[in-house]
Design brief:
Blueprint (H helix, E strand, L loop, with lengths): L1 E2 L3 E3 L5 E3 L7 E2 L10 E3 L4 E3 L4 E2 L1 E6 L13 E6 L13 H4 L10 E2 L2 H10 L3 E6 L8 H13 L3 E6 L5 H7 L5 E5 L5 H8 L4 H12 L3 E8 L7 H15 L4 E6 L13 H12 L4 E5 L9 E2 L6 E6 L2 E4 L22
Parallel strand pairs: 9-11, 11-12, 12-13, 13-14, 14-15, 15-16
Antiparallel strand pairs: 1-6, 2-3, 3-4, 5-6, 7-10, 8-9, 17-18, 18-19
Helix pairs in contact: 2-3
Bound molecules: iron/sulfur cluster (SF4).
């Protein structure tokens, strides 16, 4: 437990948390929506500081990031809590729990995590993932700051629902972001996640302005966010605001937690792949094995540059600078290979 950042005391011992756009007003002895930030009567504390429920080396492709150090592994750490209440959450055991209720927690210091990251030769950084790292802000910040001094990269896998001031501070240490853009309507965000769309779009635009590596994941859920016109609108927004080289992952939904719609049909994913590829250079299908939508092809000459089979990645025709061997077109941005 540690004193949280970004809060203000209000009348009658209430505390206002300003970490994310919920801006929770929290009564004494109560927690915010994320269930991990508590008003002790004197201050707001981060109850999950140092509390780790999962730590392991993953392929970077699992985050998913396909155009950021392809084929390398990254130390992945996660904790408890989330500021969203997605009815389709695939990690609800950890995201919708409190620290007290989850039995499989280990304690670490930032120094211990960085030490583990440095031990593995093929590891290039630390990824904050599994649960929503925004609500692990203080611990993530302390690790990331230390990791940067050791020349490790910091990667955040996030829903993007964060206020500007904490995001700005975090960006000093964070290198790459895998952001969930769950839908392109506020109705979806309100009804299925108990949050709102606009702050996520603002986060994406800010990350772009800071020249961060951004990849976007869109989980396609039948009858919830599979309207073709809305999807096209989203793709066009990504192309114009974030750029046509932004990697977009179309992820297959499976029924889980509180949502029981049938799994996304392959035909929908293929149709969306086709729509998205007309506006974006790099679009992939995830969460299922398919023939299409796995590999990276050079958009200039059509050469296969990176092949993928599950999480196994082969740099087929990619040079050391991230360019297509055949025509020299840059595929992987400088500093990301
Ligand atoms: S981080 Fe948690 S406590 Fe703070 S505003 Fe968001 S949901 Fe509320």
């Amino acid at each position: 437990m540690k004193t949280a950042r970004f809060f203000k005391k209000e009348e009658n011992d209430k505390i206002r948390c300003h970490l994310c756009p919920h801006n929770c007003k929290i009564d004494i002895d109560k927690r915010g929506i994320c269930r991990v930030r508590k008003n002790t009567g004197n201050e707001l504390v981060s109850e999950n500081y140092g509390k780790v429920c999962s730590i392991r080396f993953d392929p970077i492709e699992k985050k998913p990031l396909y155009h950021y150090f392809p084929g390398k592994i990254i130390l992945s750490v996660g904790s408890i809590g989330c500021n969203l209440r997605c009815k389709f959450c695939q990690n609800f055991e950890i995201s919708q729990s409190t620290v007290d209720d989850y039995p499989f927690i280990s304690e670490y210091t930032p120094q211990e995590i960085v030490k583990i990251a440095l031990k593995e030769a093929n590891n290039f950084g630390i990824s904050y993932t599994y649960n929503e790292p925004i609500v692990w802000y203080e611990f993530m910040y302390d690790i990331a700051k230390l990791a940067q001094t050791e020349k490790l990269k910091n990667v955040m896998v996030t829903n993007g629902f964060i206020n500007r001031e904490p995001l700005e501070e975090l960006c000093r240490f964070m290198d790459a972001f895998s952001v969930d853009l769950k839908a392109f309507t506020d109705r979806f965000y309100k009804q299925l996640t108990s949050s709102s769309l606009e702050p996520v779009l603002e986060t994406l635009k800010y990350l772009k302005s800071q020249h961060k590596h951004i990849e976007i994941t869109n989980l396609v859920i039948p009858e919830e966010n599979d309207d073709e016109d809305v999807f096209l609108e989203m793709v066009k927004w990504i192309a114009s605001e974030i750029g046509i080289n932004t990697v977009l992952h179309l992820s297959r939904y499976y029924p889980t937690y509180k949502l029981n719609r049938p799994s996304t049909p392959l035909s929908t994913l293929l149709k969306f792949l086709d729509i998205a590829q007309q506006h974006l250079n790099y679009v992939f299908i995830g969460n299922m094995r398919t023939e299409k939508g796995q590999n990276t092809y050079c958009r200039k000459c059509g050469e296969l540059v990176i092949g993928r089979h599950g999480y196994s990645t082969i740099r087929e025709r990619l040079d050391e600078q991230g360019n297509c061997v055949n025509c020299g077109n840059n595929i992987i941005p400088r500093g990301s290979i």
